[in-house]
Amino acid sequence: MSETLDGAKQVLTATFRDPITQTLLIHSSLTRTQFETVLISMLGQELSGRPVLSHERLVLRLTKPKLTRGSFNRTLSQARRNIVGSIYTILLLGYVGLFDSPELAPFLELASRMKAYIDQREASETMTQEDRGEVMKIIGDELEEAINTLVRGAPNEV
User: Fold this and answer.
1) Residue 83, Ramachandran bin (φ over 0: left; ψ between -120 and 50: alpha; else beta)
2) What is the CA 17 to chain-centroid distance, rounded?
3) Are 94 and 101 in contact (CB under 8 A)?
4) What is the largest CA-CA distance in the chain?
5) For residue 100, what pLDDT is reported?
6) Cα–Cα distance between 30 and 21 in angstroms, integer?
7) DSSP state letters, 102-130
8) Where does the pLDDT of residue 31 fall: very low under 50, low under 70, confident under 90, or very high at 90 and above?
9) How far apart are CA 112 and CA 143, in angstroms?
Protein backbone atom coordinates (compact mmCIF):
# COMPACT_ATOMS: atom_id res chain seq x y z
CA MET A 1 0.00 0.00 0.00
CA SER A 2 1.33 3.43 -0.87
CA GLU A 3 2.47 5.91 1.77
CA THR A 4 -0.49 8.22 1.09
CA LEU A 5 -2.96 5.38 1.57
CA ASP A 6 -1.18 4.34 4.79
CA GLY A 7 -1.65 7.89 6.07
CA ALA A 8 -5.31 7.84 5.09
CA LYS A 9 -5.80 4.54 6.91
CA GLN A 10 -4.17 6.01 10.03
CA VAL A 11 -6.61 8.93 9.93
CA LEU A 12 -9.54 6.50 9.62
CA THR A 13 -8.23 4.45 12.54
CA ALA A 14 -7.85 7.58 14.69
CA THR A 15 -11.38 8.67 13.75
CA PHE A 16 -12.83 5.40 15.02
CA ARG A 17 -10.83 5.62 18.25
CA ASP A 18 -12.19 9.09 19.04
CA PRO A 19 -14.66 8.81 21.96
CA ILE A 20 -16.99 11.45 20.52
CA THR A 21 -17.10 9.66 17.18
CA GLN A 22 -17.84 6.43 19.02
CA THR A 23 -20.70 7.98 21.01
CA LEU A 24 -22.24 9.61 17.95
CA LEU A 25 -21.86 6.49 15.81
CA ILE A 26 -23.45 4.21 18.41
CA HIS A 27 -26.56 6.37 18.42
CA SER A 28 -26.63 7.16 14.71
CA SER A 29 -28.64 5.40 12.02
CA LEU A 30 -25.43 4.23 10.35
CA THR A 31 -23.64 0.98 10.98
CA ARG A 32 -19.91 1.16 11.59
CA THR A 33 -19.32 -0.30 8.13
CA GLN A 34 -21.63 2.22 6.47
CA PHE A 35 -19.93 5.11 8.29
CA GLU A 36 -16.50 3.83 7.32
CA THR A 37 -17.62 3.48 3.70
CA VAL A 38 -19.02 7.03 3.60
CA LEU A 39 -15.80 8.40 5.10
CA ILE A 40 -13.69 6.60 2.54
CA SER A 41 -15.95 7.66 -0.31
CA MET A 42 -16.32 11.31 0.67
CA LEU A 43 -12.93 11.96 2.25
CA GLY A 44 -10.71 9.55 0.37
CA GLN A 45 -9.12 12.21 -1.79
CA GLU A 46 -8.61 14.58 1.15
CA LEU A 47 -7.12 11.82 3.28
CA SER A 48 -4.70 10.57 0.65
CA GLY A 49 -3.94 13.85 -1.12
CA ARG A 50 -4.94 12.53 -4.53
CA PRO A 51 -7.94 10.93 -6.24
CA VAL A 52 -8.55 7.47 -4.80
CA LEU A 53 -9.18 4.70 -7.30
CA SER A 54 -12.03 2.27 -6.66
CA HIS A 55 -9.71 -0.65 -5.85
CA GLU A 56 -7.80 1.59 -3.41
CA ARG A 57 -11.01 2.47 -1.56
CA LEU A 58 -11.41 -1.21 -0.82
CA VAL A 59 -7.91 -1.33 0.67
CA LEU A 60 -8.71 1.60 2.97
CA ARG A 61 -11.47 -0.36 4.68
CA LEU A 62 -10.60 -1.19 8.27
CA THR A 63 -13.23 -3.91 8.38
CA LYS A 64 -13.46 -6.54 5.65
CA PRO A 65 -10.62 -5.18 3.49
CA LYS A 66 -11.12 -7.88 0.85
CA LEU A 67 -14.44 -6.46 -0.21
CA THR A 68 -15.72 -6.33 -3.78
CA ARG A 69 -16.48 -3.02 -5.48
CA GLY A 70 -20.13 -4.02 -5.76
CA SER A 71 -20.37 -4.66 -2.03
CA PHE A 72 -18.62 -1.35 -1.28
CA ASN A 73 -21.06 0.49 -3.55
CA ARG A 74 -24.10 -1.24 -2.00
CA THR A 75 -22.92 -0.30 1.48
CA LEU A 76 -22.33 3.27 0.32
CA SER A 77 -25.83 3.42 -1.14
CA GLN A 78 -27.35 2.11 2.11
CA ALA A 79 -25.38 4.67 4.12
CA ARG A 80 -26.52 7.54 1.90
CA ARG A 81 -30.16 6.43 2.25
CA ASN A 82 -29.77 6.33 6.03
CA ILE A 83 -28.21 9.80 6.09
CA VAL A 84 -30.98 11.29 3.96
CA GLY A 85 -33.58 9.47 6.06
CA SER A 86 -32.10 10.87 9.27
CA ILE A 87 -32.31 14.41 7.96
CA TYR A 88 -35.92 13.90 6.88
CA THR A 89 -36.73 12.40 10.30
CA ILE A 90 -35.44 15.46 12.16
CA LEU A 91 -37.36 17.77 9.85
CA LEU A 92 -40.53 15.67 10.16
CA LEU A 93 -40.43 15.65 13.95
CA GLY A 94 -39.97 19.41 14.00
CA TYR A 95 -42.72 19.96 11.46
CA VAL A 96 -45.36 17.98 13.35
CA GLY A 97 -44.42 19.64 16.63
CA LEU A 98 -42.58 16.85 18.40
CA PHE A 99 -39.66 19.20 18.71
CA ASP A 100 -40.21 22.75 19.91
CA SER A 101 -39.99 23.97 16.34
CA PRO A 102 -39.16 22.68 12.89
CA GLU A 103 -36.02 24.77 13.01
CA LEU A 104 -32.72 23.10 13.48
CA ALA A 105 -31.44 25.74 15.92
CA PRO A 106 -31.02 23.31 18.86
CA PHE A 107 -29.12 20.91 16.64
CA LEU A 108 -26.99 23.70 15.24
CA GLU A 109 -26.18 24.75 18.79
CA LEU A 110 -25.04 21.20 19.54
CA ALA A 111 -22.98 21.20 16.35
CA SER A 112 -21.40 24.48 17.42
CA ARG A 113 -20.52 22.97 20.80
CA MET A 114 -18.97 20.00 19.03
CA LYS A 115 -16.89 22.34 16.88
CA ALA A 116 -15.68 24.11 20.02
CA TYR A 117 -14.75 20.73 21.53
CA ILE A 118 -12.85 19.78 18.38
CA ASP A 119 -10.95 23.08 18.44
CA GLN A 120 -10.20 22.59 22.11
CA ARG A 121 -8.95 19.07 21.46
CA GLU A 122 -6.63 20.23 18.70
CA ALA A 123 -5.32 23.09 20.84
CA SER A 124 -4.49 20.77 23.73
CA GLU A 125 -1.21 19.49 22.33
CA THR A 126 0.39 19.59 25.78
CA MET A 127 -2.11 17.10 27.20
CA THR A 128 -1.09 13.48 27.53
CA GLN A 129 -2.92 10.96 25.39
CA GLU A 130 -4.60 9.58 28.52
CA ASP A 131 -5.81 13.04 29.61
CA ARG A 132 -7.02 13.79 26.10
CA GLY A 133 -8.94 10.50 26.07
CA GLU A 134 -10.60 11.35 29.39
CA VAL A 135 -11.60 14.82 28.15
CA MET A 136 -13.04 13.36 24.94
CA LYS A 137 -15.00 10.78 26.96
CA ILE A 138 -16.49 13.55 29.13
CA ILE A 139 -17.39 15.57 26.05
CA GLY A 140 -18.98 12.51 24.45
CA ASP A 141 -21.06 11.91 27.58
CA GLU A 142 -22.14 15.57 27.64
CA LEU A 143 -23.19 15.43 24.00
CA GLU A 144 -25.12 12.23 24.54
CA GLU A 145 -27.00 13.78 27.47
CA ALA A 146 -27.68 17.00 25.54
CA ILE A 147 -29.09 15.05 22.59
CA ASN A 148 -31.24 12.90 24.86
CA THR A 149 -32.54 16.01 26.64
CA LEU A 150 -33.32 17.65 23.31
CA VAL A 151 -35.28 14.63 22.13
CA ARG A 152 -37.11 14.11 25.43
CA GLY A 153 -38.41 17.69 25.40
CA ALA A 154 -39.59 19.31 28.58
CA PRO A 155 -37.90 18.02 31.76
CA ASN A 156 -41.25 17.23 33.47
CA GLU A 157 -42.17 14.64 30.86
CA VAL A 158 -41.77 10.95 31.61
Assistant:
1) alpha
2) 12
3) yes
4) 56
5) 61
6) 12
7) SS-HHHHHHHHHHHHHHHHHHH-TTS-HH
8) very high
9) 11
Between 61 and 48, name the one with better pLDDT: 61
Read off the amino acid at residue 125: E
**Domain ranges within the chain, ordered by starting residue:** 3-152
HEC profile for 71-107? Answer: HHHHHHHHHHHHHHHHHHHHHHHHHCCCCCCCCCHHH
Cα 108 to Cα 146: distance, rounded to the nearest angstrom: 12
Q: Supply the pTM of this predicted model.
A: 0.69
Rg of the Cα atoms in the chain: 18
Helix, strand, coil percentages (3-state) for the chain, rounded to 5, are 75, 0, 25
